[in-house]
């Protein structure tokens, strides 16, 4: 498994992490001033991203993300992912891109794919 693949796997786990463990887990995979955006939001910094993740976990209890594929070059990566429901069935799919800095994610953009 490449470093980028592992980074995305660890990042994906943050979305369904225990609330008390999420900030430390997120800090291990993203820089302090991380920028995050998807079609519904734009947040900056670990605290805001952790809060957004907590809101996601509350809205979709039992859901988690599976990283299906990672492409990488020049401190950038693209991850194809699937959101799985509480039974492990696909609920949504998408892609996310990121700029890497110091071995962590620095600027993340998520896209949701049509069903």
Q: In a nutshell, what does this entry contain?
A:
The protein has 115 residues and is of the alpha+beta class. Helices cover 30% and strands 46% of the residues. It has one domain (3-112): Nuclear Transport Factor 2, Chain: A (Roll).
Give a written overview of the molecule.
With 115 residues, the chain is an alpha+beta fold. It has a single domain, classed as Nuclear Transport Factor 2, Chain: A, CATH 3.10.450.50. Helices cover 30% and strands 46% of the residues. The chain contains three helices and six strands; from the N terminus they run ααββαββββ. The protein has helices at 3-14, 22-29, 46-59; strands spanning 30-38, 41-44, 64-73, 76-84, 90-101, 104-112. A six-stranded mixed beta sheet has the order 2-1-6-5-4-3. Strand 4 and strand 5 form a beta hairpin. The longest helix is centred in the middle third of the chain and has 14 residues, at 46-59. It is globular and about 35 Å long. The N and C termini lie far apart (29 Å). It comes from Streptomyces tateyamensis. Residues 11-107 form the SnoaL-like domain.
Topology record:
Blueprint lengths: L2 H12 L7 H8 E9 L2 E4 L1 H14 L4 E10 L2 E9 L5 E12 L2 E9 L3
Parallel strand pairs: 1-6
Antiparallel strand pairs: 1-2, 3-4, 4-5, 5-6
Major sheet characteristics? 6 strands, mixed
Q: Ranges with pLDDT <50 over ≥5 residues?
A: none
Number of helices: 3
Any idea of the CATH class?
A: Alpha Beta
- Provide the residue-averaged pLDDT: 96
Annotation, overall tally of beta strands? 6
What fraction of residues sit in β-strands? over 45%
Write the CATH fold name: Nuclear Transport Factor 2, Chain: A
The CATH architecture name reads Roll
Indicate the radius of gyration in whole angstroms. Answer: 13 Å
Query: What is the helix content?
Result: 25-40%
Terminal Cα span: 29 Å
SS-based class: alpha+beta
Number of domains: 1
Overall spatial form: globular
């Amino acid at each position: 498994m490449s470093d980028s693949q592992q980074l995305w796997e660890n990042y994906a786990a943050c979305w369904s992490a225990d609330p008390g463990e999420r900030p430390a887990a997120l800090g291990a995979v993203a820089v302090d001033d991380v920028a995050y955006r998807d079609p519904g939001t734009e947040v900056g910094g670990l605290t805001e991203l952790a809060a957004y993740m907590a809101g996601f976990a509350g809205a979709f209890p039992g859901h988690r993300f599976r990283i299906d594929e990672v492409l990488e070059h020049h401190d950038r990566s693209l991850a194809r992912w699937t959101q799985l429901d509480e039974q492990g069935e696909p609920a949504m799919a998408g892609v996310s891109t990121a700029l890497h800095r110091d071995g962590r994610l620095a600027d993340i953009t998520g896209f949701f794919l049509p069903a």
